[in-house]
Amino acid sequence: MWWVKQPAVASAVVAVPEIIRRSLLTGTRDISGAVIVIDTFRAFSTAAYLFDRGVPRIVLTETLDEARARSRSIPGSILCGEVGGRRPDDFTLGNSPVEVRAFASLEGRVAVMRTSSGTRSVVGALRSGAHPVYAASLVVAEATATAVRNETRVTIVASGLGGTDIADEDEETAGLIADRIIGRPADPETVARVRSGEGAHRLRATPWIDPLELDLCLAVDRFAFTLEAHIQGGVPTLERSAGDR
Fold first, then answer.
1. How far apart are the C-alpha atoms of 79 and 196, rounded to whole Å?
2. For residues 201 and 204, what is the distance between their CA atoms, to the nearest angstrom?
3. Which of 82, 109, 105, 108 is nearest to 93 (CA)?
4. What is the pLDDT of residues 213-226, one digit of tens each?
5. Backbone φ and ψ of 211, nearest 5°
6. Distance, CA of 17 to CA of 34 (rounded, Å)
7. With bands split at pLDDT 50, 70 and 90, how would you rate the model's confidence at 54?
8. Which one-letter DSSP state was computed for residue 243?
9. Between vectors from CA 134 to CA 146 and to CA 233, what angle results, nearest 5°?
10. Alpha carbon 30 to chain centroid distance?
């Protein structure tokens, strides 16, 4: 892990949160306080588009069997997610903003989501007792940064590829949000680096992924709401804060 050095203040002292950065599933172990979990390609971009389409809440799961069981217990719910990057045959939607935008009927339906990295990382943070916990990506960057500015300490976890390998897009998103939290001007080259990085190349090279996915995931601050995670009736759940597009 590493710490973000706080900017010097010339006159009046302005309190800013201490920023701690971690990575991968192991980064959610023994974690406390305010936490932001990043998954830019694509779980928490997909989640934001789900909320924009009228999904009231997203149930977060760690395994395919758990997702299927949760969905069976929630009338009218839809299964959303991936294993190895691909949508399981019995899932309604993949981990895909493009599929979410194209799907005909989402208003009022609960989504049950399982992904290889993002959902598992948020569940890990919740189980460690962290609070509040936010899921984030570039499309909700500013809203998320604003939500935690009054915290004493904020841990940002870049969930990575499969939760086990560093993903450049998550690290870059973590850096952008960290800068915004403490009021440092964000690097204007962040999106360009993500677009030319290994994660973006992987999306473009994967035949079942629509090329538009990349643009939808790189739409910085497209949504003015946050994705806040909590335990609801014993179930890890993601809900949208108040906010407008």
1. 31
2. 5
3. 82
4. 999 999 999 999 99
5. -55, -25
6. 10
7. very high
8. -
9. 135
10. 20
CB 5 within 8 A of CB 104: no
**98 in Cβ contact with 213 (< 8 Å):** yes
Instruction: List the chain domain ranges.
Output: 17-240
Asked whether the whole model's pTM tops 0.90, one would answer yes
- With tokens 């999306």, the residue in question is 203
> Is 78 within 8 Å of 92 (Cβ atoms)?
yes
Task: Give the tokens for residue 165.
Answer: 């390998």
Domain spanning 17-240, CATH architecture = Alpha-Beta Complex (3.90)
**Secondary structure string (H, E, C) spanning the chain:** CEEECCCCCCCCCCCCCEEEEEECHHHHCCCCCEEEEECCCCHHHHHHHHHHCCCCCEEEECCHHHHHHHHHCCCCCEEEECECCECCCCCCECCCHHHHHHCCCCCCCCEEEECCCHHHHHHHHHHCCCCCEEEECHHHHHHHHHHCCCCCEEEEEECCECCCECCHHHHHHHHHHHHHHHCCCCCCCHHHHHHCCHHHHHHHHCCCCCCHHHHHHCCCCCCCCCEEEEEECCEEEEEECCCCC
| CA trace torsion 94, 218, 127, 21 (10° rounding) | 150
pLDDT tens, 57-92?
999 999 999 999 999 999 999 999 999 999 999 999
Contact between 40 and 198 under an 8 Å Cβ cutoff? The reply is no
What whole-number distance in Å separates Cα of residue 228 and Cα of residue 237? 8
Residue with tokens 């989501």: 113
Q: How many residues does the structure list for the chain?
A: 245
In angstroms, the CA 177 to CA 55 distance is 25
